[in-house]
Amino acid sequence: MLFLVAALLLLGVAMGTVAHAPLPVTLVMATVIGLWLLVFTVRERRTRHR
User: Fold this and answer.
1) What is the reported pLDDT for 37?
2) What is the spatial distance between Cα 19 and Cα 10, in angstroms, rounded to a whole number?
3) How far is CA 44 from CA 7, 20, 29, 31, in A?
């Protein structure tokens, strides 16, 4: 439950930051986060299949 509260708090902070950032900065950061999540997913799947 505490993890959920912390995640929602961080999401609120991130969304507040995105609302004030220029669109190109937001798109670059969204791409970076998406790539990081993709790499994380691939690494987790490789680890679980071994």
Assistant:
1) 93
2) 14
3) 21, 34, 22, 20
Q: Where are the alpha helices (DSSP H) in the chain?
A: 2-20, 23-49
Mean pLDDT, rounded, of the chain: 86
Q: Judge contact between 18 and 26, C-beta under 8 A.
A: yes
Which amino acid, residue 13?
Answer: V
What was the pLDDT predicted at 38? Answer: 95
* Greatest Cα pair distance in the chain: 44
Distance CA 49, CA 29 (A): 30
pTM for this predicted structure: 0.60
